[in-house]
Amino acid sequence: MAQRVLLCDTTLRDGEQAPGVSFGWPEKEMIARALVDAGIDELEVGVPAMGGAEAKKISQLVALKLPVRLITWNRVVLSDLLASYRTGVEGVAICIPTSEQQIKHKLNKDRGWLLDQMGQCVRNAKQEVGYIVLGLEDASRADLNFVKEIILEAQKLGVDRIRFSDTMGILEPLQVFFTLQELAKLSRIPLELHAHNDLGMATANSLAAVQAGFKAVSVTVGGLGERTGNAALEEVAVALKYCLKQEVRLDLKRLNSIASIVSAASDRRIPRAKPIIGSDVFTHTSAIHIDGIQKDYANYQTFPPESVGRKHSTAFGKHTKSKNVVRLLKSRGMDCDQDTVKELLGKALDRIQQLNRPLEEEEFLGIVLSS
């Protein structure tokens, strides 16, 4: 049986790098517990090198003794790692810039220095923690041969997982699949894709990486993260199960409640049409669609909304027909003649024009009761 893909959540690290987002201790604990209760595989919980307040929150998370691996994010700098060790986390992610752009113009160093520094940090971490993730920052803009060289060196050093980061969000699925296949065939170490969503392809790229042989993907709740965010946990988890037919440990029915917690903690409203967790994603307005799902849900259903703790609903818009009105009334134990139905529909359409949006079922019933 194929190995299950690991969902490595970084809401508490990369998610908190989203502009204007800062989680206090109660929010961090609530998010961590919700994700763990749902069955997440790993939590990246922050950056201890940021200082006392951040390190304290991470230490508090460690003290909860949650049944999941907690890791921290670190630059390829020993002082960062020392700050992580003091929190008591089980694992560390050591991030190394891999593109010439960043090696030369961010670090002002060369490849030789980077490999040497990587070796020092990994060997040091091996003495202090039980799990090491080597993060390859800006790997999507790096020389592929240099990435391969890093992978081979990481194998010698005993790294547990390698994270290929599309830091700028510039990859597309076909490129991911054909390029990353080479790395998956080369590496004896499990590979993870950390996808950013600058061009709206983070989820698709994550699935392509899995198809290419990657064993883990980075995710955040709602896609929260730096700039346009990361691959969304809920999208990746559902797509793994229903598109790739992969086993998913996560309890998908908890996705909506987790998203609500993160939305409140980050003060970011969930868009109505946001896949999986948006309020409208299982709502049907067109008469054709409503008729279709009444006959067989599979006519307009990719997967059952009940599998993610949701249900189908209908709304009344300009495409609504009389039979949709009749259906709703009968479901509520009401019966009207055809003339009354047409009158009610006319009033609803007038109200829709005034509000410039569809009406929810309860709003339509309000019109019925006031007529």
Automatic annotation (TrEMBL):
Identify the keywords attached in UniProt to this record, alphabetized. Answer: Transferase
Per the record, the domain of life is Bacteria
Please name the Pfam families in this protein's record: HCS_D2 (PF22617), HMGL-like (PF00682)
Q: Tell me which residues make up the Pyruvate carboxyltransferase domain.
A: 5-256
Q: Which residues form the signal peptide?
A: none
Coiled-coil segments: none
Q: Which family is it part of?
A: Belongs to the alpha-IPM synthase/homocitrate synthase family.
**Protein known as:** Citramalate synthase
What is the scientific name of the source organism?
Answer: Desulfosporosinus nitroreducens
Q: Which lineage do the record's taxonomy fields give for this organism?
A: Bacteria, Bacillati, Bacillota, Clostridia, Eubacteriales
